[in-house]
Amino acid sequence: MIEYKTYIANKIWLTSKVRMVAESKRRTMNTILWILGFYYSIASLSVHLFRVFHGSYSSEVGAFFSMIGLFAPYISLGLGLIKSSDEYRKCYLNLQKLLDNPSPSISKKYSDILDDSPNHNSYDYIDFVVKHAWIEMKTLTDGTSKNVEATTMMIVTWGFRRFFLWFFIVLFFSPPLVYWWFCFFY
């Protein structure tokens, strides 16, 4: 039978690591959206500055690029990516303090910390398990010291989400490049 302190320590460690993954994902998405906004702002500016070299649709293309450049950062703000990543950071730092300074009421403090912070979604947990147990091939245990393994479904959903993330990044960053390519080579 597993000791209760070890059980709680394992749960705290696992929750802390999943919250780190959640924070990292949200900060990365926030950065991508801000870069996308800046990128489209530069594309819009270049379309308007070099209008002489383009066809008759440069105003419409420039307006489209301007709209994307303007609204991409607002999407980040609307989703609250920075706010939620800060809350996850605060949570995992508090959990780490709890692990560093165990006390008799560790279970109560653990519950209080989780009550004060937003819960991560199931995909954050899947990302952590796949990265830790499958990609890095490390041993991962849950609160009861049972091995946690990445299931085939976890790996497949992780792979699909990675594919679609990169697909949409390429999709959103390619229109200015395609536009400039047609302008200069046709």
Quaternary status: single chain
Q: Give the class from helix and strand content and strand pairing.
A: mainly alpha
- Arithmetic mean pLDDT: 89
Stretches with pLDDT under 50, minimum 5 residues: none
Which value, in Å, is the CA radius of gyration? 23 Å
User: Major sheet, described briefly?
Assistant: none
Counting DSSP H or I runs of 4 or more residues, the number of helices is 6
Distance between the termini: 73 Å
What is the 3D shape?
elongated
Beta-strand segment tally: 0
Run of helices and strands = HHHHHH
Strand content: under 5%
Helical fraction: over 70%
List keywords for this structure.
single chain; 186 residues; mainly alpha; 0% strand
What does this structure look like?
- The chain has 6 helices and no strands.
- The protein is mainly α and 186 residues long.
- It has a domain at 4-119 and 173-185.
- Helix 3 packs antiparallel against helix 4.
- It is elongated.
Short summary of the structure?
It comes from Candidatus Liberibacter africanus PTSAPSY. With 186 residues, the chain is mainly α.
Task: Please give the structural blueprint.
Layout: H1 4-49, H2 58-79, H3 81-100, H4 106-116, H5 122-135, H6 152-185
Helix pairs in contact: 1-2, 1-3, 1-5, 1-6, 3-4, 5-6
